[in-house]
Amino acid sequence: MHIIHRIFIITTALLLIFAFNALGESPDDFIEAGIIKGRSGDTSGALDDFNRALVLNPKNSGAYYNRGLVNSLLGDFRAAIADYSSAIKLNPQFPGAYNNRGFAHAATGNYMAAISDISKAIRLEPFVPELYNNRGTAKMSLNDYIGAIQDFTKAAKLNPKLAGAFNNRGLAKSLSGNTTGAIEDFTLALVRDQKYDAAWYNRGNARLSSGDFNGAIEDYQKALLLQPELIEAYNNRAFAKASLGDYKGAVDDMNILIAKGTDNAMTYYNRGLAKKMLGDLKGAIADFQKASTLGDTLSASALHELIK
To answer: Considering the domain boundaries, does residue 305 fall inside one?
Structure first.
């Protein structure tokens, strides 16, 4: 079964800035109005206000920055990049704009540009742990696990309470083959935040990879108590249960997956295998047939063996 790793990304300086006290017709007044609207969820109104501020003063870096933030929140990362670039052109010493442009670059898959921008933010603000954490996630996306681990270690050194840095370093270690080190880091993350569902899930994955199926099941259970919609945890917990011979438990987890809409061939195939081990041949045949209709060739072969 496929194990999906989750990365905890902290976005620093993703905050609306340049707040003022009185509403009026100046650029700053429109910026304040946009901030208020943005915080209340009125992104359309916020964009209108930041646009008005820029009509009155096209050289207002704060208006570009805030509009970039809203565009990023809306998923329009290219527009956000353009806005952050305008803010940086007007104010080259703007670490938040570099970081957020890096985040937007990462969202579009341009991790090299993300690393470059976040590195610029770090040169301006070398003691902000979240910046190293963000750069580490970008490096990890390029499979630079050594560089990522170095950045996460720096983030953790600057802020030993930053659970996300330990979680991310654990992911980098896991992906580089250091399962033992990964488990240690996920545990450190959980010492700092017992409600960190991603860290429970990630440690479950590492324990699963190490053959500690009971430990993995316990971790997935904790993750699911915190985040019941974490579909991958049901899938991986089913695998761990099946590895221990608990085929009924595996079927139960895959039933939950299917009930939650995970209607794919692999889920039906795996449930069919578990039902077969339980002696439920009728149920196994039905699952293999379903998986086969969804295009799974393994199910077609398994079905042939049962009905030949």
So the answer is: no
What 3-state DSSP class applies to 38?
helix
Per-residue pLDDT of the chain (308 residues; tens, 9 = 90+): 434 344 444 443 334 443 333 444 788 899 999 989 999 999 999 999 999 999 999 999 999 999 999 999 999 999 999 999 999 999 999 999 999 999 999 999 999 999 999 999 999 999 999 999 999 999 999 999 999 999 999 999 999 999 999 999 999 999 999 999 999 999 999 999 999 999 999 999 999 999 999 999 999 999 999 999 999 999 999 999 999 999 999 999 999 999 998 888 999 999 999 999 999 999 999 999 999 999 888 888 888 788 86
Which domain range does residue 91 map to?
Answer: 1-126
Radius of gyration of the chain from Cα atoms? Answer: 24
Q: What is the pTM assigned to this prediction? A: 0.87
CA distance 21 to 48: 19
User: What is the rounded CA–CA span in Å between residue 34 and residue 25?
Assistant: 13
Q: How many domains does the chain have?
A: 2
- In angstroms, rounded to a whole number, what is the distance separating the alpha carbons of residues 263 and 175? 28
Do 149 and 101 lie in one domain? The reply is no
Asked if 186 contacts 212 with a C-beta cutoff of 8 angstroms, the reply is no
